[in-house]
Amino acid sequence: MNSNNFFIDLIVRFLSKNPKFFKYIQIASIALVALSAGLNALPSGSVPPFLAWLKSNVVWVSGIVATVIAQLPNQTPK
Prior knowledge:
The chain is mainly α.
């Protein structure tokens, strides 16, 4: 596989329409990233203990990765 074809295919996948299920996963992942980033902006004492796990960097990095991966399966035009 040529590296140019890989990048072109990747760009085409990012710009194409994706199935409904993956669109919902992408929206949920974006919401998780936004919530985690908002909690990271707060001082550490103001976050309730049951939400402390959302303040982790692992949560927002995994949310970004899930958002990107949810965009990869796409619908091919017929």
